[in-house]
Amino acid sequence: MKIPRMTVITLGVSDLANSTAFYREIFSTQPVTQYEGVTFFPLPGVWLSLYPLDKLAEDIGIETTEPKHHADSLPAPLVQGARSEATGSYVAGRRGSAHAPAHSGHPDFRGVTLAYNARSKEEITHIFARAAEAGAHIAKAPQDTFWGGYSGYFSDPDGHYWEVAWGPMFDFSEHGDLRFKA
């Protein structure tokens, strides 16, 4: 069986109009469609879907409480757990159950980031400027990394974290798909 390609990433959002405006600014494009309370943005190789959080939870069949607005709840960054010898990254100190995911101890971090791989450091600078203008919280300004690249993180109005990274080992196909150099 061939591994299926990811085709849609859906983000549960607290304010669909606000999030649509945010991503319109970030991507410098109009959404292709806003269908029955869902907004879709075409990205190379995948669609980004914005769906009201309560409706997404209802569709999944779970209950949720309305999250507090992300900008009102930004504590200083926390890192918990042990540093991995293999990767140099911090890993969570405990595992979660099937119903309660493990997290870093940061109340707004869900343990998931979305990533955009840029073709240059300059492109990252441009993206971060657009993100800041759109109201993003800059969690980590772009900087040189231990792995030889350049990256930073920002979050959208609902606290979804995006990494924007460039690396000397990245290459792109003619269609914009990320490849790693051999």
From TrEMBL:
InterPro entries per record: Glyas_Bleomycin-R_OHBP_Dase, Glyas_Fos-R_dOase_dom, VOC_core
GO molecular function: dioxygenase activity
Signal peptide residues on this chain, from the entry's feature table: none
Keyword line: Dioxygenase, Oxidoreductase
Gene3D superfamilies reported for this sequence: 2,3-Dihydroxybiphenyl 1,2-Dioxygenase, domain 1 (3.10.180.10)
Every VOC domain range: 5-167
Name of this chain's protein: Glyoxalase/bleomycin resistance protein/dioxygenase
Protein's organism: Sideroxydans lithotrophicus (strain ES-1)
